[in-house]
Design the sequence.
């Protein structure tokens, strides 16, 4: 299990990074935390011709908290976000969900933005981005664009990052004052990807949940009447499309979606 | 074979290496620097046997390319020894508590626990269990490893007290 | 007086090296070696049409590529069937590299040797193998249906069918007042040591000798196998076991294809060659175990006492059977546990499938047997409305019935004859430890909190310390160091500590003067290996007997030097001294000098010792008849049959009424492995076994697709438990010494894992009020069982 050879680029500035990404186009992959990419390469399931290592690009590791948002830079490790007191005050859901992401050792290296770009349908952070109306900022040599969460996750293990682009940050909007949030999941072992997970945010009488492990990506379900259990159940049931895999049946996942939604809403109401 | 220069320190010793970009940090440590205490149990980041500290934080060395660590300070299990070269407090605790059998996973536990105890001086048993829950051990059933985390905290506290006096 | 070490919690001598990163495991050696990688079959069943290596030849750093056609001499023959049996009528074993057909995903087809593993994998990736697909036989149902065959010349996919019986069990079952029939299944898991296999071979062309390091559980047998396969004189081959990162059974198989191929390539290339198995290879090319399907018919009276037991089971042996029928034979005999079955009959089929071969994994067929018998006990208890512990108690073999002969033949070909054990006492201790009688109150309290809990138990008897023999060699050096070696190997059990405790006691020397070596054929040539919980029994007894003979020799020499009778001497703290007159003594190092008439004074000890030397008798040769120079000796221990340990586990589980998650709240163990050499080590073995038992009950399974692809060949998806999944373990010991060996010990290595699936199934059943017939069980499966149960009982 040794990775195949690749051309290595170690830009020392954002401009250099974008230049080399522009030059290499689809041949290149970005290396940030590498916690998903490296094992895929070691199993020779991925063989990018070139890696652009952005770990030495200054300025990308910030976590900025403003009045209405938390902006997480491309190199901010999960653990950095998790332990940021201001980010926790602004958006408690970030830490709550990050604690469910693998194990601390992985969070020490893996990046939050990287997890979004990777787009695993059972991953927590894509659901959080959806719940908080967030977006991902993509830079390229020719410009910049913000892609909202609902457009960013394009399929299992797929996201809307084009050749030549670098996801420089993710922006999570701060929910209104008085909002409450929760994230619950069932996983086979502590730290594994979720069999099913549910994040919930309630503010000003409106509620929304985002479910993971039950669709091609995070499944966002706005709940107009969060206090009506039957309508909540129906809305969740209609939105998800769980499948069988070796760890659980689709039926069980469908059941968990209901149980966890109920529990998450109970916690925040 | 194209190689790339990279400089980092391991256990306080600076190294300037030329490695192939794809060389995993685990292999660079083990086979280029002959620091074979870091073990490779799965090479996909799940077992934790290869855990080393990068700038003080535990990370999986099998999930890192050595080239990306330019400028980093790396600590391996060999760097967790006492200044005299004997067992450091975490290692001593693992010995006292019979927290290892084959010893293959142990280096990853030692580095993980060493870092953990920097911020957690007096963990409860549940916290100690949580602290090691990202590392696989096939021999011990973890019971004595959990005890060793608590014992290591005691030994570390004792050493700190000695330093102060 | 020297402190007696036998029975003490002596900290391990192995640890200081291992905790500081100074262990030497296989891949820590041979930095100068070429490295091997293998092209393995991606298909479960196929004929090899063509192998094209041309693209691989361009890879820079490639040294050699080998296919079956390159194998010469006996290396091209099928690998040995290690343990034949008369009922194993259709034994099939693989070739080191596939000849014309592959029979499981992962079977080695092409060997690549290169300057590094990276390069070897680059080249392996470029080898093109053309296959003709054949239908895959996956799972016991498909194997016994036999619509397709794994091996063309094995009808019915049937490797063996074996029957043992003590009478007409089915007649006894039919005549009994009550009858139950159960179908019970247990799925595949694997040993899964954290270090995979690995081989490093160095050929010295000038000396014409081969030195092989391999991560094995039996170095002596690998040596014999290598000499035979490579056509070398045995005395030109040495095999050394470095530190081994866990075995749990999988490394007892030998020779693995790579154990032949790597030395073979090293000889051909004249350069050291190394192969370090990676995790993905380990999943698909090492061994698995556990998969069995059982049908039970049991007859019993109204008190729940067995009248007859008839068991038919089907064992999935995978694609090949190099290790014979050991696993199903153990299931068929050890299933009986601590019980008298009435009339017993067991029949099993060992079936081929296009999956990874099956050889012993810790417990080796016992977990399945225990699971079957304990499910039967629970079923009888439920059917008769009797407490589960009471049903068991009523069927126990009583202590006064020991030794107890079941009238069957065990895995070692000897009678299944229990030597000792007090099962009612073990159960009484367990009930107390777990609080069996107070559980209903706890259940009610939990129910009031909206929680669902259950309690379960399981009992087992484990034949341990199978023969035929192990040996020991002890030499006292002139500086007083005691050098001990035994041929069997070590994978983390703390053998060096345990054996040093025994030797220190027997010889009367300080513990820190004893140095133990295991698994190095340069030091000890005759050994069997480390499996079947046999080291304390076999090598422990062997080194004890050896130490006694060396002590006798030391006393004889010292008696002459001190001019006293042997009977007046004792050995204390490394000194032979006159009883009652401690000042009159001679240290063992000096005795070692005296034992050798050649006394060049290389060191002070030798110079000093000459003062004790008696004047030479000019009429006698310096080494008399029957004497040997040196203070050393060898001895062997060979038991008449296995010694039988036992234990009982109780488990408290909580099941989530909504999510069906299953959590083990308490895990209690009462264990009787005879006398304990080092209780700390024994408890460590139990802890580890319990974790594997929990893994096997709730998390671990090999998930094969119908086409024979292993779907979870990674630690991401093969769910070995972390600390977060494993409970604390509460242990109590009972000590019933074995009458069979000089130490009174029984084996302890495998015990912890045996009743895991059985006890946890019992507890989940108790919590849920539904029947569990298939293990392991996941939350998703429990959810499905609940749904089915609701349908059946509206």
Sequence:
């Amino acid at each position: 299990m040794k990775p195949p050879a690749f051309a290595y680029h170690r830009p020392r500035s954002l401009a250099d990074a974008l230049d080399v990404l522009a030059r290499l186009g689809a041949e290149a992959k970005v290396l940030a935390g590498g916690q998903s990419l490296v094992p895929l390469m070691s199993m020779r399931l991925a063989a990018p011709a070139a890696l652009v290592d952005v770990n030495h690009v200054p300025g990308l590791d910030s976590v900025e908290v403003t009045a209405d948002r938390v902006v997480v830079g491309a190199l901010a490790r999960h653990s950095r976000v998790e332990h940021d007191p201001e980010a926790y005050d602004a958006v408690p859901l970030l830490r709550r969900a990050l604690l469910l992401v693998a194990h601390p050792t992985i969070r020490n290296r893996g990046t939050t933005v990287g997890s979004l770009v990777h787009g695993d349908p059972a991953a927590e952070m894509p659901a959080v981005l959806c719940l908080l109306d967030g977006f991902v900022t993509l830079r390229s040599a020719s410009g910049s664009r913000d892609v909202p969460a609902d457009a960013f996750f394009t399929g299992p293990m797929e996201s809307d990052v084009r050749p030549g682009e670098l996801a420089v940050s993710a922006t999570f909007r701060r929910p209104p004052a008085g909002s409450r949030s929760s994230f619950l999941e069932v996983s086979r072992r502590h730290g594994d990807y979720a069999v099913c997970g549910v994040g919930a945010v309630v503010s000003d009488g409106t509620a929304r949940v985002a479910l993971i492990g039950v669709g091609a990506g995070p499944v966002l379900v706005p709940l107009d009447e969060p206090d009506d259990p039957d309508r909540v159940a129906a809305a969740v049931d209609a939105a998800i499309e769980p499948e069988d895999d070796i760890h659980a049946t689709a039926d069980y996942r469908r059941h968990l979606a209901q149980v966890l939604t109920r529990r998450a809403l109970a916690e925040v109401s | 074979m194209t190689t790339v220069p990279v400089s980092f320190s391991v256990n306080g010793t600076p190294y300037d290496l030329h490695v192939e970009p794809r060389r995993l940090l685990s292999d660079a440590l083990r086979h280029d620097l002959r620091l074979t205490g870091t073990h490779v149990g799965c090479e996909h980041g799940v077992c934790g046997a290869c855990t080393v500290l990068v700038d003080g934080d535990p990370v999986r060395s099998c999930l890192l390319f050595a080239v990306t660590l330019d400028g980093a300070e790396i600590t391996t299990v060999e760097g967790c020894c006492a200044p005299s070269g004997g067992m450091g407090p975490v290692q001593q605790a693992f010995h006292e508590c019979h927290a290892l059998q084959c010893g293959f996973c142990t280096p990853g536990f030692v580095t993980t626990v060493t870092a953990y105890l920097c911020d957690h001086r007096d963990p409860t048993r549940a916290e100690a269990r949580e602290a090691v829950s990202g590392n696989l051990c096939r021999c011990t059933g973890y019971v004595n490893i959990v005890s060793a985390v608590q014992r290591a905290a005691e030994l570390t506290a004792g050493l700190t007290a000695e330093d102060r006096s | 007086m020297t402190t007696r070490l036998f029975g003490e919690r002596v900290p391990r001598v192995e640890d200081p090296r291992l905790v500081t990163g100074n262990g030497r495991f296989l891949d820590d050696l041979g930095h100068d070696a070429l490295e091997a990688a293998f092209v393995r079959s991606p298909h479960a069943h196929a004929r090899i049409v063509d192998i094209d290596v041309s693209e691989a030849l361009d890879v820079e750093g490639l040294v050699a590529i080998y296919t079956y056609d390159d194998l010469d001499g006996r290396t091209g023959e099928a690998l040995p069937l290690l343990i034949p049996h008369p009922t194993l009528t259709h034994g099939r074993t693989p070739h080191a590299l596939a000849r014309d057909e592959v029979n499981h995903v992962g079977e080695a087809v092409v060997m690549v040797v290169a300057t590094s593993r990276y390069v070897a994998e680059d080249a392996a990736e470029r080898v093109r193998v053309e296959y003709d697909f054949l239908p895959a036989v996956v799972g016991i149902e498909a194997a016994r249906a036999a619509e397709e065959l794994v091996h063309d010349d094995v009808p019915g996919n049937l490797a063996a069918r074996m029957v043992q019986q003590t009478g007409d069990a089915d007649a006894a079952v039919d005549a009994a007042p009550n009858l139950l029939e159960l179908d019970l299944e247990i799925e595949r898991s694997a040993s899964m040591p954290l270090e995979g296999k690995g081989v490093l071979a160095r050929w010295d062309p000038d000396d014409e000798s081969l030195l092989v390091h391999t991560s094995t559980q039996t170095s002596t047998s690998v040596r014999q196998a290598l000499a035979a396969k490579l056509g070398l004189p045995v005395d030109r081959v040495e095999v050394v076991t470095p530190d081994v990162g866990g075995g749990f059974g999988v490394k007892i198989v030998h020779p693995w294809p790579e154990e032949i191929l790597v030395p073979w390539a090293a000889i051909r290339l004249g350069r050291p060659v190394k192969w370090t198995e990676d995790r993905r290879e380990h999943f698909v090319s090492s061994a698995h175990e556990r998969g069995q399907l059982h049908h039970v018919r049991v007859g019993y009276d109204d008190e729940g006492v067995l009248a007859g037991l008839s068991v038919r089971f089907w064992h999935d042996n995978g694609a090949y059977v190099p290790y014979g029928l050991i696993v199903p034979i153990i299931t068929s005999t050890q299933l009986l546990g601590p019980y008298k079955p009435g009339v017993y009959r067991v029949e099993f089929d060992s079936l081929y499938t296009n999956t990874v071969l099956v050889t012993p994994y810790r417990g080796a067929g016992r977990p399945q047997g225990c699971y079957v018998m304990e499910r039967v006990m629970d079923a009888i208890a439920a059917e008769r409305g009797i407490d589960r512990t009471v049903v068991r108690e009523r069927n126990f073999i009583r202590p006064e019935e020991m030794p107890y002969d079941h009238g069957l033949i065990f895995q070692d070909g000897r009678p299944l004859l229990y030597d000792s054990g007090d099962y009612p006492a073990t159960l009484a201790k367990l009930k107390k430890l777990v609080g069996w009688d107070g559980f209903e109150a706890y259940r009610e309290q939990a129910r009031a909190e909206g929680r669902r809990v259950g309690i379960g138990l399981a009992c087992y008897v484990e034949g341990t310390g199978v023969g035929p023999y192990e040996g020991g060699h002890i030499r006292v050096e002139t500086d007083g160091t005691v050098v001990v070696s035994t041929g069997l190997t070590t994978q983390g059990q703390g053998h060096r500590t345990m054996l040093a405790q025994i030797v220190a006691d027997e010889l009367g020397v300080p513990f820190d003067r004893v140095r133990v070596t295991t698994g190095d054929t340069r030091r000890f040539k005759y050994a069997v290996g480390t499996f079947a919980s046999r080291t304390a029994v076999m090598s422990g007894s062997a080194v004890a007997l050896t130490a006694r003979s060396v002590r006798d020799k030391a006393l004889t020499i010292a008696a002459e030097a001190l001019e006293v009778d042997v009977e007046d001497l004792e050995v204390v703290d490394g000194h032979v001294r006159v009883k009652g007159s401690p000042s009159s003594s001679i240290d063992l190092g000096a005795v070692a000098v005296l034992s050798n008439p050649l006394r060049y004074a290389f060191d002070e000890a030798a110079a000093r010792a000459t003062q004790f030397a008696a004047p030479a008798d000019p009429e006698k040769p310096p080494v008399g008849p029957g004497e040997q120079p040196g203070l050393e000796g060898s001895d062997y221990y060979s038991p008449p049959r296995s010694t039988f340990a036992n234990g009982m586990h109780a488990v408290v589980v909580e099941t989530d009424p909504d999510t069906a998650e299953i959590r083990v709240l308490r895990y209690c163990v009462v264990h009787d492995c005879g006398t304990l050499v080092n209780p700390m080590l024994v408890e460590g073995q139990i802890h580890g076994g319990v974790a594997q038992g929990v893994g096997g009950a709730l998390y671990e399974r090999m998930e094969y697709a119908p086409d024979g692809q292993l779907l979870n060949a990674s630690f991401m998806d093969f769910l070995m438990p972390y600390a977060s999944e494993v409970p604390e373990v509460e242990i109590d010991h009972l000590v019933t010494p074995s009458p069979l060996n000089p130490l009174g010990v029984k084996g302890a290595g495998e015990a912890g894992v045996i009743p895991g699936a059985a006890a946890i199934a019992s507890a989940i059943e108790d919590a849920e009020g539904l029947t569990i017939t298939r293990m392991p069980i996941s939350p998703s499966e429990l959810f499905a069982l609940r749904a089915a149960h609701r349908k059946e009982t509206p």
Remarks:
- Chain B touches chain C through 59 residues (CB under 8 Å).
- The mean pLDDT of chain B is 96.
